[in-house]
């Protein structure tokens, strides 16, 4: 690959950064490697690997370092950092709390955990301490109301991006950290191994104290805590029973955190199979999922958890027969967000139990659900977020419609044009924290025509005054601005990947944007959109507003991710309080199985296509 190293693409832009972000990137070791200063960095010869299984599965932070996108193939005003210190997980979302130090993981999948990262410095996620939650159920097994739990925390210890990056540079593998064995009788492990069902895999694990790389026992422990964070959680006795742990948000008035559990099933609704594993969560199964509320102490650590609102299974007939959860309630909640006012929780769905996924406004005082947005056939509603700092005239609620006709009703698409995703927004009146906000209920989509469109509630009442609403599209997959096609895959050199193997549409175009963040930099407005693809990508758009507050795109570029070894299956994201975009990489590949297979994995292969011109 001719000595290629991703850091060289980004090093020359370091001097443009703010002092805070400069400190963050220096700690990330990308700069350290580029200048050859890391004693543990691998030799970047022509035979060195392009990337590693341990390069994916982390929060990725993007900073805007200038007002102009530039004329190159990729944006010249962005810098990306991958936060290895925060742990390798199925990052549905990295959610930062108001102290600007504490971040929670929405860890999506089966037999997953609850994780909390506490950074050393506010606004700098490059180093800190990682924790995993241990739940204790206070209600009887099989609780039909979702259960009540106390929460304690187990520390994984401190690490930095630079430290963990150095282990990856040395070529660390799963077998350098753990010995793993199958349960001898499928029910138990030998006394010198710890049983684990993390990620739905029955394993017996033993942490190593020495390895072929000459690492100390403490180094191996630190590496395992960040590179095998879920397995490490099981190893130290943390709870790994969550099923489809999705979005996270915080309510500063009630000092509660809300999390979405898309499906209450599997380990949440049954006991472990292996002896020696605590049954920390055992409630009645609910395919419609629920939203939980968690009390938070002054250090922003959660202390208890119970259900806030649960979905309800229901059978329908006729043109509603494909719905299997109550249409007047939530189904498979995915994204949750506060921020509209003190009392409204926005809940988004990712479900096949409602034919048309919707957004809900949940009134935390009255416990009333109001349907406020509906998506076309087969799509998912993602990225709901309310922005109050972009305009002094209006607030904006961003909503993304992901993969229309993609997860169901594929046969109803009349052409590829129907399948293009939407990035859109709704203008809202300026809303204050204590304002009373009531949306008109959006009716359930029933006709074929209604099921094909993205539609917002017709009006919202703020302190009794009605305001008309509409949904405006910023971009759809395949839209072209200048030479850039929105959603078209690019490789490590910034060239279009028109032949990308997993593309949803011709010309390497994706229909799976999962989150869009609005940011303001020195008076200029930008949006950053990330795509949930094996070869994950992000785009930045420059926006202007007119007299009515409409957002108007005037520039578009893909973001250069070469300095962080590309992206992988970007899911949800958020704007940080210090003005950056923070996204999460979801569904990291099983490194143990990957090593045993000789480096083969069907999900890792599309990610490697990003590096096709690097060899």
Outline of the structure:
This protein is mostly beta strands. The strands form eight sheets. Strands 3-4-5-6-7-14-13-12-11 form a nine-stranded antiparallel sheet. A five-stranded antiparallel sheet has the order 15-16-17-18-23, with no helix packed on it.
Describe this structure in words.
The protein is mainly beta. The chain has eight helices and 34 strands. Strands 3-4-5-6-7-14-13-12-11 form a nine-stranded antiparallel β-sheet. Strand 3 and strand 4 form a beta hairpin. Helix 5 (217-227) crosses helix 6.
Strand order of the largest sheet: 3-4-5-6-7-14-13-12-11
Report the structural category. mainly beta
Radius of gyration: 23 Å
Q: Give the biggest sheet.
A: 9 strands, antiparallel
> Which term fits the overall shape?
globular
Overall pLDDT, averaged?
92
Strand content: 25-35%
Low-confidence stretches: 1-48
Enumerate how many helices there are, as a single number: 8
Number of strands: 34
Helix content: under 10%
Measured between the Cα atoms of the first and last residue, the distance is 4 Å
């Amino acid at each position: 690959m001719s000595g290629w190293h991703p850091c060289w693409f980004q090093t020359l832009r370091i001097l443009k950064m703010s002092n805070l972000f400069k400190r963050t990137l220096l700690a990330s070791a990308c700069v350290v490697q580029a200048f050859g200063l890391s004693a543990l960095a691998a030799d970047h010869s022509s035979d060195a690997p392009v990337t590693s299984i341990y390069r994916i599965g982390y929060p990725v932070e993007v900073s805007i370092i200038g007002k102009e996108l530039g004329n190159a193939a990729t944006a010249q005003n962005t810098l990306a950092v991958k936060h290895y210190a925060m742990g390798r997980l199925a990052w549905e979302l990295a959610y930062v709390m108001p102290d600007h130090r504490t971040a929670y993981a929405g860890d999506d999948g089966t037999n997953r955990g609850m994780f909390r990262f506490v950074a050393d410095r506010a606004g700098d996620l490059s180093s800190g301490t990682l924790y995993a939650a241990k739940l204790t159920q206070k209600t009887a097994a099989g609780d039909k109301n979702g259960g009540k739990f106390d929460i304690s925390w187990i520390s994984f210890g401190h690490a930095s991006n630079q430290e963990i990056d150095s282990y990856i540079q040395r070529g660390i593998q799963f077998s350098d950290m753990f010995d793993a064995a199958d349960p001898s009788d499928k029910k138990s492990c030998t006394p010198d191994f710890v049983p684990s069902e993390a990620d739905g895999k029955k394993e017996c694990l033993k942490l190593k104290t020495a390895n072929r790389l000459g690492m100390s026992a403490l180094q191996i422990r630190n590496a395992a805590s960040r590179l095998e964070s879920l397995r490490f959680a099981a190893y130290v006795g943390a709870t790994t029973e969550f099923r489809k742990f999705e979005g996270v948000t915080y309510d500063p008035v009630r000092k509660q955190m809300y999390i979405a559990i898309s499906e209450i099933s599997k380990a949440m609704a049954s006991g472990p199979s292996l002896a020696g594993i605590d049954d920390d969560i055992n409630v009645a199964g609910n395919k419609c999922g629920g939203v939980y509320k968690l009390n938070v102490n002054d250090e922003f650590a959660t202390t208890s958890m119970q259900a806030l609102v649960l979905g309800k299974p229901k059978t329908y007939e006729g043109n509603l027969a494909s719905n299997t959860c109550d249409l007047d309630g939530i189904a498979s909640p995915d994204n949750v967000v506060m921020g509209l006012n003190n009392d409204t929780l926005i809940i988004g769905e990712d479900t096949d139990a409602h034919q048309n996924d919707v957004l809900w406004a949940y009134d935390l005082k009255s416990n009333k659900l109001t349907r406020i947005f509906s998506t076309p056939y087969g799509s998912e509603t993602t990225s709901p977020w309310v922005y109050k700092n972009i305009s002094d005239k209006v607030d904006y609620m961003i909503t993304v419609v992901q993969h229309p006709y993609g997860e169901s009703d594929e046969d109803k698409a009349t052409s590829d044009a129907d399948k293009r995703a939407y990035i859109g927004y709704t203008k809202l009146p300026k809303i204050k924290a204590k304002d009373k906000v009531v949306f008109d209920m959006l009716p359930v989509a029933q006709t074929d025509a209604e099921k094909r469109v993205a539609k917002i509630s017709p009006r919202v009442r703020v302190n009794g005054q009605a305001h008309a609403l509409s949904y405006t599209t910023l971009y759809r997959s395949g839209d072209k601005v200048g030479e850039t096609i929105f959603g078209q895959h690019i490789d490590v050199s910034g060239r279009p990947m028109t032949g990308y193997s997993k593309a949803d549409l011709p010309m390497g175009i994706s229909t799976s944007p999962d989150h869009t963040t609005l940011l303001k930099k020195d008076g200029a407005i930008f949006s950053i959109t990330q795509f949930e693809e094996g070869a994950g990508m992000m785009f930045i758009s420059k926006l202007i507003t007119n007299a009515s507050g409409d957002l108007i795109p005037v520039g578009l570029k893909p973001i250069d991710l070469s300095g962080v070894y590309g992206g992988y299956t970007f899911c949800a994201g958020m704007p940080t309080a210090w003005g950056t975009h923070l996204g999460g990489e979801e569904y990291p590949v099983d490194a143990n199985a990957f090593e045993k297979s000789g480096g083969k994995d069907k999900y890792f292969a599309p990610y490697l296509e990003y590096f096709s011109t690097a060899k």
